C-alpha cells in the first residue's frame, strides 16, 4: 500500500473502523515507514489535545425540570407550530408558482433536447446507464441550475432543494452514482464554508473516477465557483456563461443562450421570494410517463 | 404482555425497553432515559454550538420532543441514535435561524453559565498550580475554537465520533448519510484539527499532561 493511501485511511485506523486485513497492512506499513509513522503520532497527539475540552456534568435539577415541563404539556419550541400551519402571504405563493413554472420549464427543456447535456466522460458512461438517460439529464440540468444560481447566500435554500432532488434521482439510478453525487455535494458544502483545498481533493477524485462521473463536465464550473468564494465575490451568470461559452462543447453554447433569460427571471423572482416556501417539485412524474 | 419490562428483574432494562414502557403509559421510563442520556445530549449540543446556555435549551427541547413524539419511535431501532438525530436537527435549525438573523454561532467565547466560567469563579480547587491551570484553560480554548471552526457537517461527525464515541455505522444512522461519507468527513475534520492543534498537541504531550 502506498503512503498516500495509508494516510487517507489513518483516521479510520485510529477509530478501529478498518477490516482486519487492511488494519494489518496499515500496521505493517507504519512499522516500516517513518514518515507515515510520524503522521500517525501527530494524529494521536491531536486527539489527546482535543480531550482538553472536557464534558460537563448535567446541571442539578435538569431531569426534574424536563419531566415537569413534559408533564405540563410543554411542546418543544421548534415543534409548536407545524410548518403546514405557517401562514404564507398570497403574493409569495404567486411568485412561488412563477418560480415553479420556470424550474419546470427548464427541466422540460432538458427533456426535449435529446443531447442537451452530454457528459465529456464518453458514450460508454451514458450507454452503461441507457435506461436512465432521462433521469441523468435531469440530474445534470439540476446541477446546471445550481451553478447558475451559484453559491449565493440568498439562494441557499433553493440550492439545497436542487441537491435533494439530485440525491433522490441518483439513488434511484445506482448506489455508486448516489455515492458520487453525495461526494459532489460534500465538495459544494466545503466550498460554501471556504474549505477550498479540501473541496479540491474531492473534485479531483470525482474527475478521475472510474466509471466516469456523469456530472464531471460541471466540475470545472464548480471550481470556478470556488474561486469566486475565495475572492469574496458572487458567482453570477457572467461567470457561468464565460466558462460555458469558452468550452469546446458547442452544445453548451446553445444551452447557455436558451437558459440565460429563464435563469435571469428565475433569480429575479428569488430576490423577492423565500424559496423555502416553494412547494416540492414532482420530478418523477415529469420524467416517467407511466 | 410486557413482562420483559418489569424493572425489578436483576439486569437494568435497555433504553429501548424503557421507551417501550414509556410508550405503554409508564412515565417512569421517560425520567430514567433523561437521567441516562441527559449529560450526553447536553455535551453533544455544547460541542456543536459552543454555547452552554443554548446547549441546555437544546437538551431540554430534545427530551420534550422525545416525550411528545414517543409514538414515532420504533423500539427495534437504537434509542441513542434517535436521540442524537433529534438533537442534531435542533442544532441545525438553530444554525439556520442564526444565519438568517446574521449572528454567528461559533463565538468560542466563554459564556455565562458555561462550566469553564463557573470553574474560573470557584478557584478553590487545590489540584493544579495556577500556571498549569492557565495552560489547561488555554488549550481548552484552542480546542473549542478549532472544533467550532469545522463546517457543521464535519463538526457533527467529529463530535459524534470522537467525543460521543459512536461507530461510523451509528453516525451514518444519526445523520442519514453513508458510512463512506462519515469516514471522509471524519478524515477532513482530523486534517483541520491537526493543522490547528498540531503545535499545541506536541507541547501538551511533551509536558506529559
Count of beta strands of chain B: 0
Q: How would you describe the shape of chain B?
A: globular
- Taking the alpha carbons of the first and last residues of chain B, their distance comes to 54 Å
Q: Helix tally of chain A?
A: 14
Helix fraction of chain B? 55-70%
Q: What global shape of chain A is seen?
A: extended
Distinctive features:
heterodimer, A: 290 residues, mainly alpha, extended, B: 209 residues, Rna Polymerase Sigma Factor, Chain: A, 9 helices, 70% helix
Protein topology:
The complex is a heterodimer of chains A (290) and B (209).
Chain A: H1 3-14, H2 20-32, H3 34-50, H4 62-71, H5 90-112, H6 123-128, H7 133-149, H8 156-173, H9 175-192, H10 196-207, H11 216-230, H12 237-246, H13 250-271, H14 283-287
Chain B: H1 15-23, H2 27-49, H3 52-68, H4 79-100, H5 115-121, H6 130-149, H7 152-163, H8 168-175, H9 179-206
Helix pairs in contact in B: 1-2, 2-3, 2-4, 3-4, 4-8, 6-9, 7-9, 8-9
Your description of this structure?
The complex is a heterodimer of chains A (290) and B (209). With 290 residues, chain A is an all-alpha fold. Chain A has 2 domains: 3-50, no CATH class; 92-287, no CATH class. Chain A contains 14 helices and no strands. The radius of gyration of chain A is 24 Å and the shape is extended. The N and C termini of chain A lie far apart (50 Å). By secondary structure, chain B is mainly α. Chain B has one domain (12-206): Rna Polymerase Sigma Factor, Chain: A. In chain B, 70% of the residues lie in helices and 0% in strands. Chain B has helices spanning 15-23, 27-49, 52-68, 79-100, 115-121, 130-149, 152-163, 168-175, 179-206. In chain B, helix 4 packs across helix 8 (168-175). The longest helix of chain B has 28 residues, at 179-206. The interface between A and B is large, with 48 and 64 residues.
Amino acid at each position: 500500500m502506498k503512503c498516500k493511501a495509508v494516510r487517507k485511511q489513518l483516521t479510520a485506523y485510529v477509530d478501529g473502523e478498518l477490516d482486519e486485513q487492511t488494519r494489518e497492512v496499515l500496521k505493517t506499513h507504519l512499522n516500516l515507514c517513518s514518515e507515515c509513522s510520524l503522521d500517525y503520532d501527530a494524529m494521536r497527539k491531536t486527539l489527546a489535545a482535543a480531550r482538553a475540552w472536557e464534558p460537563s456534568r448535567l446541571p442539578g435539577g435538569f431531569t426534574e425540570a424536563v419531566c415537569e415541563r413534559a408533564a405540563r404539556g410543554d411542546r418543544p419550541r421548534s415543534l409548536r407550530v407545524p410548518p403546514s400551519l405557517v401562514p404564507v402571504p398570497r403574493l409569495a405563493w404567486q411568485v412561488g408558482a412563477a418560480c415553479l413554472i420556470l424550474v419546470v420549464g427548464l427541466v422540460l427543456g432538458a427533456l426535449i433536447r435529446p443531447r442537451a447535456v452530454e457528459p465529456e466522460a464518453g458514450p460508454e458512461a451514458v450507454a452503461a446507464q441507457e435506461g436512465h438517460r432521462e433521469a441523468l439529464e435531469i440530474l445534470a440540468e439540476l446541477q446546471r441550475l445550481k451553478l447558475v444560481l451559484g453559491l449565493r447566500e440568498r439562494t441557499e435554500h433553493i440550492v439545497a432543494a436542487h441537491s435533494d432532488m439530485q440525491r433522490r434521482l441518483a439513488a434511484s439510478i445506482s448506489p455508486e452514482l448516489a455515492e458520487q453525487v453525495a461526494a459532489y455535494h460534500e465538495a459544494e458544502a466545503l466550498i460554501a464554508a471556504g474549505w477550498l483545498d479540501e473541496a479540491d481533493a474531492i473534485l479531483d477524485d470525482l474527475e478521475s473516477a472510474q466509471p466516469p462521473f456523469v456530472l464531471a463536465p460541471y466540475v470545472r464550473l464548480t471550481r470556478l465557483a470556488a474561486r469566486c468564494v475565495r475572492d469574496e465575490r458572487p458567482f453570477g451568470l457572467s461567470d457561468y456563461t464565460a466558462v460555458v461559452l469558452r468550452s469546446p462543447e458547442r452544445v453548451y453554447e446553445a444551452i447557455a443562450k436558451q437558459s440565460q433569460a429563464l435563469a435571469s427571471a428565475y433569480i429575479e423572482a428569488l430576490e423577492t421570494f423565500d424559496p423555502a416556501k416553494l412547494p416540492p417539485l414532482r420530478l418523477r412524474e415529469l420524467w416517467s410517463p407511466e | 404482555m410486557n413482562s420483559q419490562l418489569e424493572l425489578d428483574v436483576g439486569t437494568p432494562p435497555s433504553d429501548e425497553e424503557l421507551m417501550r414502557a414509556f410508550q405503554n403509559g409508564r412515565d417512569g421510563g421517560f425520567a430514567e432515559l433523561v437521567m441516562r442520556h441527559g449529560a450526553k445530549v447536553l455535551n453533544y449540543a455544547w460541542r456543536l454550538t459552543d454555547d452552554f446556555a443554548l446547549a441546555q435549551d437544546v437538551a431540554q427541547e430534545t427530551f420534550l420532543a422525545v416525550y411528545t413524539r414517543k409514538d414515532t419511535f420504533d423500539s427495534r431501532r437504537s434509542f441513542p441514535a434517535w436521540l442524537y438525530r433529534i438533537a442534531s436537527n435542533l442544532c441545525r435549525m438553530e444554525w439556520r435561524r442564526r444565519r438568517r438573523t446574521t449572528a454567528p454561532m461559533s463565538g468560542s467565547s466563554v459564556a455565562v453559565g458555561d462550566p469553564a466560567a463557573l470553574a474560573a469563579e470557584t478557584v478553590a480547587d487545590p489540584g493544579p498550580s495556577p500556571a498549569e491551570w492557565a495552560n489547561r484553560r488555554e488549550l481548552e480554548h484552542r480546542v473549542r475554537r478549532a472544533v467550532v471552526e469545522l463546517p457543521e457537517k464535519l463538526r457533527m461527525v467529529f463530535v459524534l465520533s470522537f467525543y460521543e464515541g459512536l461507530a461510523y455505522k451509528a453516525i451514518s444512522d444519526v445523520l442519514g448519510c453513508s458510512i463512506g461519507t462519515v469516514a471522509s468527513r471524519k478524515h477532513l475534520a482530523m486534517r483541520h484539527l491537526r493543522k490547528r492543534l498540531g503545535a499545541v498537541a506536541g507541547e501538551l504531550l511533551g509536558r506529559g499532561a
